[in-house]
Amino acid sequence: MCGIVGYAGARQALDVVVEGLSKLEYRGYDSAGVAVLADGKVAWEKRAGKLANLTAALAQSPPMAGTVGLGHTRWATHGAPTDPNAHPHTDCGEHIAVVHNGIIENFADLRAQLQAAGHVISSDTDTELVAHLLEDEVAGQSAPGAGSLAAAMRAVCQRLDGTFTLVAVDARDPDVVVGARRNSPLVVGRGHGENFLASDVAAFISFTKQATEIGQDQVAEIRADSVTVTNFDGTLAQVRDFVVDWDAEAAEKAGFKWFMTKEIAEQPRAVADALVGRTDAAGRLMLDEMRLTDDELRQVDKIIVLACGTAYHAGLIAKYAIEHWCNIPCDVQLASEFRYSEPILTRTTLVIAISQSGETLDTLMAVRHAREQHCRVLSVCNVRGSSIPRESDGVVYTHAGPEIAVASTKAFLTQLVSCYVVALYLAQVQGTMFASEIDTVLDQLRAMPGAVEEVLEVMGPVREVARELAAEPCVLFLGRHVGHPVALEGALKLKELAYMHAEGFAAGELKHGPIALIEPGLPVAVVVPPPKDMAVLHDKVVSNIQEIRARGARTIVLAERGDAKVAQFADTLIELPVVPPLMQPLVATVPLQVFACELADAKGHDVDQPRNLAKSVTVE
Ligand code: F6R
């Protein structure tokens, strides 16, 4: 939530920062702002609304020349998304400009203290307080100038409760940008004669792929020719450098109307990439980033999967595979509820935290809680170097590449594949499957990119029905077994993109209440289990479809190709390739993604940036 960029180098900072913000807009898009240092002053511009409003305002303003600057794209927490509440915020002397991602929880106390000391606070934000706190800290130093902003930032951070990434500049220290982080993301990009600070590598990937992770409670000071990272206590910090493993083009739309359509189309490749390098020369599974020893994994007698939103749905599906292949009880919990449910955890409980961004604060806090209780934590993440893998005992990266659209698509499929690989690895270590059985499932997984490709080729009817239903107020989704989380995911996609009431139900629950919702014309999408391998459940779902049709529902049926029993009850039939039951979510979810995307587009919504949402949820 909120995207931040800082730059110190030889280029015009404004250009670099605005370009960086355009790559980070997915993180928040209700206002945007920039500040540039020039001629001993800080110049800034900020606007409510999307980045386009800011760039239009910049085009009308006097040029902001300068090679040191920062920028912000906002997802509002404190204060409505107005021009005054947009970042950056400045101090009374207008020397310092600050941008912030997160929430400062002791906001009220700090505001009262600053006002009592005579500071004039002109916005409703918690961020502005940091500018005034920095002002006091810098003023308290013997000689404002070289090095003082970083020292002031360290001191201020120790007075803040809550979560924050902060980036600041001070016109009296004109070569420097300072960033700090606690529980929110911040990375350094290292160029030649230029350095960057950003919430996400996407902001600087077109300039450099060399990056440095900033750890918890650390302050980074960047200049054109140096990067210094210290802990909040002023000691030099140990940092980890990494090379970004994707290209700038991966974060471009490449001719697609939306990032989401591009990311849906990329799924065959993403699934294939998630499987690359998972076996050794002898064909045995290996997970090189796992960091958990086989001895530790052999002792695991309970698994808890923690995640939010779409990643939670991936966890709900993974549970079936884990229990089936590993014979280990698996519980799946919403990360935001986990700590408060007094979970029963032991040293032999393995926690699997699934997160695309690796920054979701609910999941991060749940991971910390699990580790405090001495559980081993394995994360399944997409973003390298993000907080959740940093704080886990082991990690399996999903290798989906950058996911820019707010609604998760390729990350979901790769989370599923990665969780399946983890389950197979556990089965290998614990001896619950024969090697030949593991090989069979690996072959099934390797066939999935082709199966997803097949689905994508026949999306015409899905798009058609989506456009027909654009004016409907509500759509229901039904499924059983692994089809139930698929139904939940279909409903979530529709809610977030089309702003429609959408609910996913376990089809067997229909008769226990939801059937009362069925009325003539109500669209109901049903994920039908495969007819041969899940004959009993298949027939029960076919009965459910008859029940809702008898009450006038309009049925959109997702069923295996050639499933003659169900075809006759489908108002719209979406045929899926023939795949094993546990693989069905990989093909059944895709039409539901396309459905939501197309329907939202038909309604004229911004598919990539749905209202009120942001990609990386760094507040609890
Ligand atoms: C839905 C969506 C969200 C995320 C959730 C968790 O399309 O994108 O529900 O899945 O916020 O995010 P990560 O996976 O980054 O932890």
Which terms summarize this structure?
alpha/beta; globular; Rossmann fold; 620 residues; 36% helix; Glutamine Phosphoribosylpyrophosphate, subunit 1, domain 1; six-stranded antiparallel beta sheet; binds fructose -6-phosphate
Summarize the structure in short.
By secondary structure, the chain is an alpha/beta fold. It has 20 helices and 24 strands.
CATH architecture level-2 label of the largest domain: 4-Layer Sandwich
Instruction: Assess the beta-strand content as a share of residues.
Output: 15-25%
Rg, Å, rounded:
25 Å
Class by helix and strand content? Answer: alpha/beta
Spatial shape: globular
Mean pLDDT across the residues is 94
Assign the CATH topology of the largest domain.
Glutamine Phosphoribosylpyrophosphate, subunit 1, domain 1
Tell me the number of helical segments per DSSP (H or I, 4 or more residues long).
Answer: 20
Number of separate structural domains: 3
Bound molecules: fructose -6-phosphate
> Ranges with pLDDT <50 over ≥5 residues?
none
Specify the helix fraction band.
25-40%
Largest sheet: 8 strands, antiparallel
CATH superfamily of the largest domain: Aminohydrolase, N-terminal nucleophile (Ntn) domain
Beginning-to-end CA distance, first to last residue = 11 Å
Number of strands: 24
What's the CATH class label of the largest domain? Answer: Alpha Beta
Q: Which strand order do you get reading across the main beta sheet?
A: 3-2-4-1-10-9-11-14
